[in-house]
Amino acid sequence: MRKKEVLAAIRRRYRDRQPLNVSTVKREDPELVAAVYDVTPYWGWKQALADAGLSYQSIRIEVRETVQCQLCGKSFRSLLGHLRIHETDPEDYRVKYPDAEIVSESMRQASMGPRCKMPAPWLPHWEPIYTPEYVLDRVKEYADQGIWMELSTIERLDASLLRAVRYHLDVSWDDALRWIGLDPVVYRGCYRPDDFSLADLQAFLEQRRAAGLLSTPAALFATYDDRHRRPRVFTWALQRYGNWSAALDAAGVDRSDPLFGGDRYLTKESVIEDLQRLQHELPDMSHTTVSLLPYGIQLTGAATRYYGGWDAALDAADIPVDIRRRMATYDSADEVVAGITHRLENEFSVAPLDVFFGARSDIQLWKAAFRFFSSWRSAVVKSGGTSAQVKQAADTPLGTRAKVLRELRRRSHDVRQLAITSLTSDVADKQLHAMASGFFGDWQSAVRAIGVDPKSYHQWNLTPHRKYADKESLLKEIRRRRRAGEPLHARGLTSGEHVDVPLLYTARKMFGDWESAIRAAGIDYDTIVRKRQDYDAYRDRVYRSYTSADQVTQELKRRHAEGMPLNVRAVTHSKEEEYRDFALFRAAKEYFGSWEAALTDAGIDVESIRPAWVTKRAERLRQKQQRSP
Asked: Which InterPro entries does its entry note (predicted)?
């Protein structure tokens, strides 16, 4: 259906006094609803009604009082108790009848009433019940009203909407934004590019200046209106110019003014100058150590802005590599107290998430505080924190070891939930990660404390990505390499043009060794080896050793008396086993400094033991040098 046909159908239903709420129309005319949501860019049912000249105040709405059981045909307000008669549970019922409802529309409507957790009275529900279509329309409405569309903001404004996204759409919040045509990366759809101009930004900054208000990123991120929206011109500027510093430069303000953050680094040269100065004042030049300076965030931010990253800025300033690693270890309670006191005196946050994950994070300090004190809060108290700072330090629902263990055990019914890779940016996950690392030293130790082996949830163990999953596929590849003339010896599998290390290692796991795998493929192992060692010859070999200079001298004299060759090549690489003795050569260099010095100490003339071809070559080179001008 085209858009005009959809609008005509909606108006026709309105004239016939038929209900126009989504759930009813979807039940009576599903093609009409599907046509609305097939339109791109996103249209939505609410907008379709508006384009048809209607509103939710003018349409008829129908809500069913009962729901029909698909197993027996009887109708009830709820099937939760009735399904027990059929000896089935709601989950199995939904699997068998995925489009069937279990609770009547009237009961679902009641659940969306005053008791619903929805602290945004300025955006009441316009549909009586949640449906997948209404979920998308409501997400779109928040975006159209300029709300900051990040997950945490919507959670504070309308927690029921997030639950509805998960239940009715079965997608993530970001995917829901994509369904309505918003790019989650572009500030969660909170502005449109043509909403503001540079003049609007300049006027906004001047208003804040006149009111004596800070215009730093921290201050503006903490500023909300009555609808929990950050200043929209601020978010517009962030996307338009890439960062707040660039936006301030475009507005022509002096960023060194304290109202705009008092930026100390307006040029590349100022960054380099401070980095070179600080290398002589700080214990190290790690990102963490510098960030803990009162102006450290400005410096690290400017380094990234001008050079693309912290290490790149250190390279430009010629900072030695050996002082770029964090060196603070906090080996005593006094050092921990000093570290926390530094944070308190500079008014840095001591909230657990900020200390562990924030811009001024210090994970070494965090873990050391738990080693020397019972908790992070106790360490802050010992360091002289005020009541407000102590309260901030205790800002976590997992303030004791027992609570951390309880939460880990709750998640342990599915061990995959205990993998660090499964932890998201969700605040609850961050709290658990930080507190577990504090009380137990690291995440793996915390998991072991509840009796779970970290290997049991490691992704490689749960879903191993093997190149050769079974013996058949491995033997097939060996035979293919044989037909293609590719090397099958170990050196050819680990280096060169035809490398395939997984083939070698997997074969050893499955067959015990590479030779057994080759023979299992029906190939004669002797035809593919690069070099066959004569192990029988090596078995009777005598390995010599020389533990003193006297032993070296005695051996040299013996060899000289028996007329054995004593030049370096003969001793180290002779084909005659009785002449070859690399241990003698190595010991001579160790005790005398060189082979020639050892021979001289043994009373042997170095010139006399040199082969004739060496003497001739030396004479030839000497004559050639004399003839040259």
From this structure: ROS/MUCR_sf (IPR041920)
Strand-pairing partners, residue 218, are: none
Query: How confident is the chain (629 residues) per 10-residue block, as mean pLDDT?
Result: 91 93 93 93 93 92 90 88 87 83 86 57 85 93 81 81 88 88 65 80 93 88 75 84 87 89 87 94 93 91 89 93 91 94 93 92 95 95 94 94 94 81 78 94 92 75 72 94 91 87 91 93 86 58 81 92 88 83 90 90 86 73 72
- 3-state helix vs strand vs coil in the chain, percent to 5: 55, 0, 40
Q: Is-contact 391 465, C-beta < 8 A?
A: no
- Residue 42 has phi, psi (to 5 degrees) of -50, 130
Would the pTM of this model clear 0.70, i.e. be above it? no
Contact 364, 326 (CB under 8 A): yes
Domain ranges of the chain: 3-51, 67-103, 111-189, 198-260, 268-323, 396-465, 471-532, 539-613
H or E element in which residue 76 lies: strand 75-76
Tokens of 101: 């409802």
Q: Nearest Cα to 298, choosing from 267, 251, 261?
A: 261
Q: Are 258 and 210 within 8 A, CB to CB?
A: no
Nearest to 63 by CA among 16, 101, 94, 21: 21
Contact, 223 vs 230, CB < 8 A? yes
